[in-house]
Amino acid sequence: MNEKAYQHLATAFVLETVAAARNEISARKAGREGSSQAARLFRALTSAQRVHSNKGLMLLRGKISSTDKSIADLMQTLERSVATYESILEEVEGAVRRFVDQLLRTTRIHLGLLRKYKEEEEKIYFVCQICGFIATEKAPENCPVCQAVKKKFLKIA
Ligand SMILES: [Fe+2]
User: Fold this and answer.
1) Which CATH class is domain 121-157?
2) How many angstroms separate the alpha carbon of residue 38 from the centre of ligand 1?
3) Which one of 36, 132, 138, 153 is separated from 24 by 20 to 30 angstroms, measured CA to CA?
4) Ligand 1 (single-atom ion) residues, CB below 5 Å
5) Across the strands, what pairs with 149?
6) In this predicted model, what pLDDT tens digit does every residue of 62-118 receive, in sequence order?
7) What are the residue ranges of helices labelled H in the chain?
C-alpha cells in the first residue's frame, strides 16, 4: 500500500471509530429520553461503524496476529500511551486534566491485567462505563478511579 492510500485509510478508520463512539453515546441519550427507535438506529449505526473500523484496522495493520503476539503488541502500545499521558498531564488543567488522569490510571491498571492474565484462572471482568477502570471477580461499590456507583459497571463474562 502506498503512503497516500495508507493516509486515506487511516483517515477513514479514525472517522468511523469516532462516529461509532459518538453514536453509542447518542444511543444511550436517546434511550434515556424515551426515543427507543432512535436509540436502536444509533446502536445499529454504532455496530456498522465498528465493522468498518475493524476492517480498516485490519488493512492498516495487516493480518491479526496470534493472541500472545496481540497481547504483547497491546502492552507495547499501552506503555507508549502511559508515557504520552504522563507528559500531557503536565500541560493540561481542569476537565481535560481529570480525563487524562483517568486515562493514565486506568491504562496502568489495564497493563497490570495484561501482564498477569496468563498466570490467573478464568476471570470475569467488570468495566466502569464512566472511566474505563476494569475490576475482576466483582464490581466494587464505587469505582476506585472515578467513584462511579456499582450499577455503572458492565459485566464481561
Ligand atoms: Fe470509573
Assistant:
1) mainly beta
2) 27
3) 138
4) 128, 130-131, 133, 143, 145-146, 148
5) 142
6) 767 788 888 998 999 999 999 999 999 999 999 999 999 999 999 999 999 999 888
7) 3-32, 36-61, 67-89, 94-116
Name residues whose C-beta falls within 8 Å of residue 13's C-beta, 6 or more positions apart in sequence. Answer: 53, 56, 57, 60
Domain boundaries, the chain: 3-61, 65-120, 121-157
Residue keyed to cell 432512535: 38
Residue 153 CA to ligand 1 centre (angstroms): 8
- The position carrying cell 444511543 is 27
**Ligand 1 mean position, distance from CA 2 (Å):** 41
pTM: 0.73
Q: Which residues pair with 142 in a beta bridge?
A: 149
Condensed to tens digits (0 to 9), the pLDDT of residues 25-78 reads 999 999 999 999 999 999 999 999 999 999 999 898 876 778 888 899 899 999
Phi-psi region of 153 (alpha: psi -120 to 50; beta: other; left: phi over 0): beta
Q: Which helix (H) or strand (E) holds 88?
A: helix 67-89
In which residue are the cell numbers 485509510 written?
A: 9
Alpha carbon of 155 to ligand 1 centroid (Å)? 14
